[in-house]
Amino acid sequence: MPPTESARALRILVASSIPSPIEEPFLSTLIAQKNIAVRSIVDSAEWKTSTPYASIPNVSTDRSQPCRPFSDHDDVHRTAAELCAWADLLVLAPMDANTLAKMLHGVTDSLILEILRSWDVSKRTLLVLGMSTLMWENPMTKKQISKIRRKWNWVRVLHPLLWTFESKGKRYLPWEGREELMGAIQNQLDLMTLGQDVDVSMGQTPKHSLSLRPAAKPSSPLPPEIWSMILDFTGDWELAKRLNVYTTLPTPQCWLRAASKEGPHSFMDKLEWAILAGTLDDVKHLFNTHTAPQWLSSQAVRIIMRFAMVPLLYYLESNHADLFWASFGHAFLPDKASAVFGRVEILEYWRTSPTFLNKEYTVDAIDGASRAGFVHILEWWRNSGLPMKYSEAALEQASSRGQIEVLEWWKRASMRDDGHVRTSGDESEPEGSVPPTRKPLRLKPGKAISFATQAGSLSTLRWWVTSTIPFSHEDTVAKLASTHGHVDILDFWQLLHGEKMIYDNQVLVGATKMGHRDVLEWWKKSGLRVEYKTCDIEEALEDGVEGVKGQQVRRWWALNGLNLGVGTSEWMRTKVLNQS
């Protein structure tokens, strides 16, 4: 079972179409970074089988050409598809002029070009060109780069790697794009992890208080002292500062410098503070008196998203298009507004914005809204007129989190006229003229029952049993409940199934390994026939938890007939708990 929630690494695919002096140092730097996973494609002539990162050669897809180390050319095509699905970010560093021209014309005669043709354009690409100064200054190069910037908005062109030719051969010019490239990667990492520390249990703040404040402070029906008490009770310093309400709450670490007497120093610090504590006019003034950055900091983006600052988004979209796209482009707005911040205002802005005509978003939007318990977000998507993209994770994560209201919403949304729900295998369509937004959704239960069991959510398990929705993986309940120490679920499951309860000898192995003496005792008193092998229990004790819990299960087994000093045949013989 995968964990119900985890902060995974940013997966970067680095592709080099030519050998260069920047490739090895760049990859070494990436590998040393936390929260980054790297795979690379290198020039076939430079490919090495032993590297500290997963590296494969840029082989030809021409069937008349060799494709080692791949078994055949179908394997090359399959690898391209797998890499496209795996990677969050594609870094082309460097790409030569020949590959650039082929990319723009859709040619797929190499692994890199096959990946470029298959790439999901909702995911970003960073491009470092590598060519001679003569090629770089040629009008064709400028025309190609202009096309990328105008038409390929998922590709960001960075500072190139250039060289000249002298009597001694090729001479590389100093590459000035290292900091820019690493900054762009850090920006992608910040955007991906944005919201992982957001506490969605704090609820939503009233809409009228969450946009950028007008210059004049609106009157409040409550005395300031009452507002201070309310916001002190919430423990939300940022909300108090956003509403300009005095608070005794301690200043968060990330705001100490900006909130100090000296005030913010750098432009980005000043911008973050203006976004949080100022007005839209304050933000405009900063942009009018400073050079706009390439992208916003993760803190600035978080505040804009958290407080649904739609007027500021309109301003950035209209006046700083490159900055806006670098910070909020592709699927970022719908995915984060749905899964992390629960902001319908942001979604409505995105739906009507001319910048997002393609309406790119991923399954993370609806899956994440289900995980977070945002029923209002699910309802917005249902009524938006847009296709509903979601996976099994929607119901699995909602079940893991015990989001009963979300599960009820999915059940209602999948209900057909005959009173039955529409499941993933149901291809039937409702009769008559039904608006697309009201067609029953297909439920994808996946391993929801397993996720609920692992999380110990008995209420969710009860809901699934009484929901009349078909689900699978019932055979995992006893094992997972035993491994994770959920005796109440074992009680419920036995009451429901009696002697027909499905389980195997792993229920004792898992409980032993994880140190759950109460689970072992439950199985002993259950009246069910539970088998085990001495060899399995010995291995579980050796690999299991230590400390008090480990000692408790060892003592329990000693009192219940476990004898490790037996011969091989007896050691591997199947036994029954409490029977000799």
Automatic annotation (TrEMBL):
Cross-referenced Pfam families: Flavoprotein (PF02441)
Superkingdom: Eukaryota
Gene3D superfamilies: Flavin prenyltransferase-like
One of the GO BP terms on file: coenzyme A biosynthetic process
Ranges for domain Flavoprotein: 63-153
Region named Disordered: 418-439
Gene Ontology CC terms: phosphopantothenoylcysteine decarboxylase complex
A GO MF label: phosphopantothenoylcysteine decarboxylase activity
Family: Belongs to the HFCD (homooligomeric flavin containing Cys decarboxylase) superfamily.
UniProt protein name: Flavoprotein domain-containing protein
Organism: Lasiodiplodia hormozganensis
Gene that encodes it: MIMI_L696
